[in-house]
Amino acid sequence: MRKRGGLFWFQLGFTLLIVSFLIVPVILSMLAGLTVNYQSGLESGLTFRWVAAVWEGYRQTIFLSIGLALASLAATLVLGVPAAYVLARARGGWARAIEELLVMPVAVPGLATALALIVAYGTWGGFRTSWTFILVGHVLFTLPFMVRSVLAVMHAIDLKTLEEGAASLGASFGQRFFQVILPNCRSGILAGALMVVTLSMGEFNMTWLLHTPLTKTLPVGLADAYASLRLEIGSAYTLVFFVMIVPLLVAIQWAAREPRARRTERA
Amino acid sequence: MGGARTQGAPDGTRMSGSDSDALRPVSVRLERCGKTFADGTKALEPLDLEIAAGETAVFLGPSGCGKTTTLRLIAGLEMPDPGGRVLFDGVDVTALPVEKRNVGLVFQSYALFPNMDVRGNVAYGLRVRGMAKPEREKRVDEMLAMMRIEALAHRRIDQLSGGQRQRVALARALAVRPRALLLDEPLTALDAKLRDALRVEIDALLRRLGITAIYVTHDQAEAMALGDRIVVMEHGRVAQAGTPREIYQAPATRFVAEFIGTMNRLAGRAEAGRFVTAAGAIPWPEAPAGAREILFRPEAVRLSADGETPHLAGAVISAFFMGDHTRLFVAAGEGAPLVVEAAARRHFARGDRVGLVVDPAGLLTLKDSA
Ligand SMILES: Nc1ncnc2c1ncn2[C@@H]1O[C@H](COP(=O)(O)OP(=O)(O)OP(=O)(O)O)[C@@H](O)[C@H]1O
Ligand SMILES: [Mg+2]
Known about the structure:
The complex is a heterodimer of chains A (267) and B (370). Chain A has 267 residues and is an all-alpha fold. Chain A has one domain: Orthogonal Bundle (MetI-like fold), CATH 1.10.3720. Chain A is 76% helix and 0% strand. Chain A is built from 13 helices and no strands. In chain A, α1 crosses α13. In chain B, α5 crosses α6. In chain B, the strands form four sheets. In chain B, strands 6-7-8-3-9-10 form a six-stranded mixed beta sheet, sandwiched between helices. Chain B is elongated and about 75 Å long. Chain B is built from ten helices and 19 strands. Chain B is α+β, with helices and mostly antiparallel strands. Helices cover 26% and strands 29% of the residues of chain B. The model of chain B is unreliable at 1-21 (pLDDT under 50).
């Protein structure tokens, strides 16, 4: 092994410093959710009381958030991947213009999008009070992320030639799309999926306007808890949030993993 | 022809690959096939072209002359302008998309599927045709053996060299027993040595399989070596189609003459069995009356021997030692310098006076040289 120079140790130290700067508040916050009394510190002892309280009071928000995130993921996959394909294959100027426009929902404040949705559809009684109303907002917000990350991969591989190669071997459009195009865009789809789920789970601005008392999401509930209840409950909420989202993200990674032991065709 | 018609029904979807299903090459005909792209680029003037079954045709021409476009028309990746027709064995396939034409395609950029290993790539065309697994495995093994890539069967595509990739691409294209094999500059991305080796191999392969092959290149040496027939293209037109020998020895136009090999040119006039130029006169009993310009290859001219009367006199501009010979650029008359090949052992310096003897059998005139 090569001997590591001073620069390496400096860089390592610097990285650790930054990481701890970011992670310490998170750990403190989660710890606060487990202490009996935050004011008197850890000496007051550890308890699951607050976590239990959060589970009692906010369980619904957690389920709704996960449901919304997965529904957003499904919608962005179904809409976004074909859209990216169409944009990647189109050579006209309009396609490039749409690609540029795709950043718009990100640049427009979530509140503005939410207001627009309310102005347009707020009077549709059943829709306004249903969770699908929030879903529409989330899909609007997250779709560009899916399209852009898939599109980036599609631009990087020579999509057109790959598809022509498959077609010359007799593959129909469906076969080309599912057997050649999608598998080769896997990394972009995975990146987009992680982005969509995390963004949807954490989305607050827009959701805060779109939600009704019966359709509260996790971040909205979190804001509630911080604003109106004990700090320990808010912190316990953060803890629950982490415990929910980390396995979800890992599961997505796992589901989209490169099939290492590929089904090899042996004679 | 009737039997061929039914057998070669252009739907191209063969569900089984029985042994009787061997390569059956088709003839390819283009009728008034022009191509104007959506942006108004006129890539091809309406052209007519016939490629016989089992023949290897090479499309040769400078960049942008429409070689790839013509190939894509044959493959079904582009539609000709209205009025143009593509026929396989006399059957109109113009409306058939590429996946129904059953032609093999080999690209300069390989276009292998990165999500599959070598076996998966070679098997893909058979898989989409629904060929049963045992038969498919057998065919894939044959193909891997034919291209001598058995050892690579389970490699990922990104673990292969360029030459290996192109072998896989050939195996993949041939596995489905296509009716014609279309290759678009398959060797251009490889380094010179590998290019030569693979070219020899492709040549042997095409001859052994007897498949109709259309090979696009801008490398004339490659074209000469591979083609039964060379189709020289210029600005979206066929400048000349013929055997390599015809193209080389009897170019139809100035463009062909100068694009293929090296061509010397001298201005002058035909006069009493001689062609008289500013640098001297060449005896030429068959000189066509009114010829104003002659063309000849470097091999039709040599330095005059001691005591021999030279036809032309000139001065060496530069000399390149090529190993087995020396290539001289000689100023003679007022045109471009003549290229002359001399023995390797003699040394030349700039300004050396040399006499040239021209073999009248190697002299050409062009119709458009008036
Ligand atoms: N999709 C397209 N849209 C517009 N113009 C095109 C398109 N494809 C090719 N062309 C134009 O058509 C002409 C012929 O192109 P083609 O690719 O057939 O040339 P080529 O002979 O294969 O050249 P090269 O040796 O560089 O590959 C060129 O002028 C090219 O710019
Ligand atoms: Mg080309």
